[in-house]
Amino acid sequence: MTQNLAQEAQLKSYQKRLKDDINSIVENYTKILQMVRTDADTPVSGSETQATSYEMCCRAANMCRAAESMLKLIWDIKQFLIINDFPLINDSISKKVADNMINVADIDHKLINLRDEIANELYELEDEYYNSLIK
Fold first, then answer.
1. Under 8 Å between Cβ of 104 and 62
2. Are residues 73 and 102 in the same domain?
3. Is the dihedral of CA 70, 71, 74, 79 positive or negative?
4. How many CB atoms lie within 10 A of CB 28?
5. Total domain count for the chain?
6. Same domain, 78 and 97
7. Among 65, 84, 58, 57, which Cα is nearest to 21's?
8. What is the pLDDT of residues 33-66, one digit of tens each?
9. Which of 29, 66, 108, 120 could form a disulfide with 24 if both were Cys (CB 3.0 to 4.6 A apart)?
10. What is the number of H-type helices and E-type strands within the chain?
11. CB distance 21 to 69 below 8 Å
12. Range of the domain at 1
C-alpha cells in the first residue's frame, strides 16, 4: 500500500517536472519570437539591440536548461521503470533459469557420452594389455 502511494507520488512528480519544462520552453520561445518582431519605421538604438540580444541569449539558455532537465527526467523514468518492473525481471530470471537448465542437460548428455567412450576405450586397452601379457 505504502509502495503504491510512493510510486504514485513519484509519477506525479515526473508529470509536474515535464509540464514545468515544457512550459518553460514554450514561454521562452514565444518571448524570443516577440522580441524578433520590430516595426521597420521605428529606429532602434544600439543599447536596445544589445539588451534584446542579451535577453534572447538568456532565454535560449533557459530553453537549453529545460531541455536538459527533460533528458534527466527521461533517464529518471527509465530507471524508475527498470527498478519497479518486477514482472519483467521475473520473466528474465525465468528465461535465464530455463536456458541454464537446457545447458545443464546438454552438458550432462555430453559428459555421459564422454564417460561411455572412455569406458569403452579403457575396456579395449585393458583387454589388449591382459591379452598381451598372457602370450
1. no
2. no
3. negative
4. 20
5. 2
6. no
7. 65
8. 888 876 656 666 778 788 888 999 999 999 999 9
9. 66
10. 3, 0
11. yes
12. 1-84
Residue 85 amino acid letter:
D
Please give the C-alpha separations between residue 52 and each of 46, 65, 75, 133, in angstroms, as whole numbers.
10, 20, 35, 108
Q: Are residues 65 and 111 in the same domain?
A: no
- Domain match, 105 and 59 both: no
Give the three cell numbers for residue 116.
561411455
Which DSSP letter does residue 37 get?
-
Question: What do you get for the CA distance between the two ends of the chain, in Å?
Answer: 86
DSSP secondary structure string, 85-132? Answer: -HHHHHHHHHHHHHHHHHHHHHHHHHHHHHHHHHHHHHHHHHHHHHHH
pLDDT for the residue 43: 63
Q: Please give the chain's pLDDT, 135 residues, in tens.
A: 676 777 788 888 989 999 999 999 999 999 988 888 766 566 667 787 888 889 999 999 999 999 999 999 999 988 888 777 777 777 888 999 999 999 999 999 999 999 999 999 999 988 888 888 655
Same domain, 109 and 129: yes
Are residues 30 and 13 part of one domain? yes
